[in-house]
Amino acid sequence: MPVDDIKFEDNTETLELLEARKPRLGVLPLLDEELKTSGHSDLGYLAKLMKAEHPRLRRPKGAASKDCFQIEHFAGNVEYNVAGFLEKNSDTLPNDIKLLFDAST
What we know:
Layout: H1 12-19, H2 27-36, H3 42-50, E1 57-58, E2 68-73, E3 76-81, H4 85-89, H5 95-103
Antiparallel strand pairs: 1-2, 2-3
């Protein structure tokens, strides 16, 4: 089977958007940074993310998009809603584990 005609999409820009630590923070590192700030919020994260001005990152149009962002992946645009992003991505231990650690000697 000839494979000369298979074209592979270069995902470098999308991967940089997701993971970049410098010069601007990417989607995931920025999420970690927002979790470290006092008074962090999902909409605060979104506002900081939108300042990144990346060619594959955009704000979708429409009334339901106030808490959403969109990333252009190889297969098309994917919309993400930031509601609950910080809570879902915090690395906190469950309370019963904290209590167990506090009680141990």
